[in-house]
């Protein structure tokens, strides 16, 4: 993957990328024990979670994450579906290694995609994936991640960050979460638009 993906990522044709990511998905789905050898009984008896071939797993996940930065909507859609299937069948998002190393980067990328409207046709699917990732630990999403995301968001001032954080209600059911997410994205986009139109040193909304 270290040698192959950078070459394929530069190619304009999505066909090769679709095949590569489909292959990676099948590998993960059918060879899950290659990465996570622990049985359900073992996990019930211990708080630790064994992970084999960690570097390979990280590289595969990073390649999926990087694909969401590409403009091709077919690759984006397929890879989003692959992640959701892996979570539905194998609890991907709940794995300790994913929670600790990949959850925040994936949430960041998907929120940025919504903000920039780069894949608007997949808005519903992206929202569902964000919800499923947030649902792994709603407290951490609302208390830690959202604050961290807003701190790194450019084009808004501290007061606007505070308003956005406060207005994102801490609901946990899917329909309300999606409504709150859409409002959050629209409000952040609106603040940026207003701020960019104001002269320097003007009072911001």
Q: Judging from the principal axes of the Cα atoms, what is the shape?
A: globular
Give the radius of gyration.
19 Å
Helix content: over 70%
State the separation between the terminal residues, measured CA to CA.
47 Å
The ordered string of helix (H) and strand (E) elements is: HHHHHHHHHHHH
- Helix and strand content put the structural class at mainly alpha
Q: What is the residue-mean pLDDT, rounded to a whole number?
A: 89
Number of helices, where a helix is a run of at least 4 consecutive DSSP H or I residues: 12
Would you kindly provide a written description of the structure presented here, covering whatever features stand out?
With 205 residues, the protein is an all-alpha fold. Helices cover 71% and strands 0% of the residues. It has 12 helices and no strands. Helix 2 (14-30) runs parallel beside helix 6 (73-90), helix 8 crosses helix 12 and helix 10 (138-152) runs antiparallel to helix 11 (158-167). The radius of gyration is 19 Å and the shape is globular. It starts with a helix and ends in an 8-residue tail after the last helix. The model has no long low-confidence stretch (mean pLDDT 89).
